[in-house]
Input
Amino acid sequence: MRRLAFPALLWSALALTLVFLALPLVAIFVDVPPGELLSSLDDPAATDALRLSLETSALALALIVLVGTPAAWVLATRRFPGRAVLVTLVELPLVVPPAVAGIGLLAALGPQGIAGGLLQDAGITLVLQTSGVVVALAFVASPFYVRQAIAAFESVDPRLLEASRTLGAGEARTLLRIAIPVARPALAAGAALAWGRALGEFGATLMFAGSFRGITQTAPLAIYERFASDFPAALALSAVLVALSGAVLLTARLAGRTGTDAAR
Amino acid sequence: MLRAELTHALRDVRLDVALAVADGETVALAGASGAGKTTVLRAIAGLVRPDAGCVTCGDAVWLDRGGGVDLAPEARRCGVLFQDYALFGHLRTWQNVAYGLRDVRRSQRRAAAIALLARFGAEGLADARPGALSGGERQRVALARALATRPRVLLLDEPLSALDPATRAAAARELAAVLADGGVPAIVVTHDYVEAATLGDRVAVLDGGRIVQDAPPAQLAAAPASAFVADFTGASVLAGTARAGAGGLTEVALAGGGMLLSTDRATGPVHAIVRPWEVGLEAAGGEPPGAAASARTRLDARVTAVTPLGNRVRVGLAVPEPLTADVTLAAADGLALAPGARVAVVLKATATRLVGPAD
Output
């Protein structure tokens, strides 16, 4: 009897976790009749918001991967004074409240921000623009990818990298042909998390880019707008967003999975 | 000609090594694990930057810490066989080999890679993934890959240690053939004397961070420079104190009790070195000390282990210091050798080497 007590405890904890995490998501779908789910997609405001969410989050993810991958490589392969500080700095947006992120972005890149003049001279306006949404999403979501990418590169067998070098490949070729393919499953998982976080971003986007339909109103902002006036519509849009996020997560997982399977 | 002079602080010892390897020559770099063998190899390949030193290959200077030269590994063209082979698991076998074939046109790389694999009888594995290969197959692929860059130096780190004993002998023969017709300097790191003697034209023994002896394998066995080298070659080492004895011989009072004779001259603390095949065994008691025995040593011993090795028997003895003897099957039967049995060990004074103790 006593031998079973602890496993029972473990399983109950798992059950409780699953129920707690899944219940709100399940409730969204239970509350929305399938017909309403489809008709909510007829609302041009809703489809605009979804399209904008997909576009801006994809663009933000592309930026994060393009810049974050080499940055993570540097942090994973070099040892230098102040490295720990840099890693912490990279992770900081994880713990910063989204509202603070929005204020920070305004203070940095807004018209009166410290880099605002520079941007203005270059003819770039971010605030209240779609490009501002991309910046807000990239800021909030990048730690999810970069953190994972550092860990992924650190866990690549250093012998493989050394073998590549002795075979005449420089660092660039070693990164592209060996490190990235070997780390691909973990990189894909990191990208999925970052994308998911970007899709759900609310606070920073609202404060930095505002909520203008078709320009800066992403799906979470559109849901919030409907929340006060039209709860069923908010619910329907939420359901679509959940399905979309789930699909993104699954796709990235599978993209990483085929990588490992092929390697075996 | 490869020349390397390196000093580097390791965790336990300070590495201070000078090595010169001629074209077509193979030097086995031997020593206990942790002695720094692999570090020497990595410093030559450019994978670790030594505290001081220089590495030259022919006219090319690869490393000169004083002169500020430190070529990247990709600029040195070393063919490295890593201990666990370090094959790229996400690439097919032929792609692993083709990775180093950058001066071959892209359209011809597959054919060139397969041709290299064929040198090792591994062309049939071209489309396999490294994860699906056996240890011996991996070694062949890794060798083909290491040779793909047409390296100017071959560096092999414990090339046979990942193989099971059955594959090892065949792999050693293949490897020896590759090294023989490679025409470039080669260094093989190993902790095994037989492997070192099989593959090396010379064996350099690393102990305490220094190369204590650098000589052909036969000379290493015949005249070990230190007790460590003797132990490495499989000889037994007995500690004792030497003084001049009768008839120009040296008498050594063994630390474990008993006395032996050697024709080598020495005084003070020494290590007596005895090779297993030069140890004779007789029934205990037996012949009393006499004139005929004056140039031989007789020690009482207890048998601790009996291991048949083909047509001979390896006998572990305690005199009480450990001593190994190789005797014929017939001799083993005649003496009824078994653990616990008492026998007499007979050592010829002419076959007993004396070296100074390790510092």
Summary: The radius of gyration of chain B is 25 Å. Chain B has nine helices and 21 strands. Residues 165-180 of chain B form the longest helix (16 residues). Chain B has a mean pLDDT of 88.
